[in-house]
Design brief:
Elements: H1 2-19, H2 23-37, H3 46-73, E1 83-88, E2 96-100, E3 103-111, E4 120-127, E5 130-135
Parallel strand pairs: 3-5
Antiparallel strand pairs: 1-2, 1-4, 2-3, 4-5
Helix pairs in contact: 1-2, 2-3
């Protein structure tokens, strides 16, 4: 009878690796604890012992899963507040190309004036792979020529 619970623990443990839930882990632990308890108690009560372990470990697994999910929601996005350099744009969709973390990203300007290539901006949000930028104020420089095309306002 002990081998049944050892096999059940093994199968539930392997299945847990493919599903990612805590429920099968709780069943695997209950089966493993039942097999260990079976070394002391007679085999006729092991079904009740397994049921008792399941009634304790399944709610504990659900509580742990919800607790970990709640903690994960509080994680902040470490990209927010990081500086990027505008390297091109805007295109027909008002998207800019920026250099961030060693690669090029698509971005939109949510706050500030339209940037020119070479301007600096700060990430204020992110939607999938699209960065939302806040453009930093332009610092006038006497020795640098502006990369922005001259405005055609009269």
């Amino acid at each position: 009878m002990l081998f049944v619970y050892v096999i059940l623990a093994f199968v539930a443990g392997i299945s847990e690796l493919f599903t990612g839930t805590f429920y099968l882990a709780a069943v695997a632990l209950a089966a493993l604890f039942t097999a260990i308890t079976g070394l002391i108690l007679p085999g006729t009560v092991l079904h009740w012992v397994f049921l008792g372990y399941c009634l304790v470990l399944l709610p504990a697994g659900m509580w742990l899963r919800h607790r970990l999910a709640r903690k994960a929601q509080g994680l902040t996005d470490f990209d927010l507040g990081q500086g990027v350099e505008v390297i091109g744009g805007p295109d027909q969709n008002e998207h800019y190309t920026v250099h961030y973390r060693g690669s090029e990203w698509m971005a939109v300007v949510d706050d500030g004036p339209a940037p020119c290539p070479g301007d600096r901006a700060v990430i204020i949000g992110k939607t999938d792979n699209l960065l939302h930028l806040g453009v930093l104020p332009q610092q006038p420089s006497a020795d640098k020529e502006s990369l922005c095309p001259p405005s055609s306002s009269s």
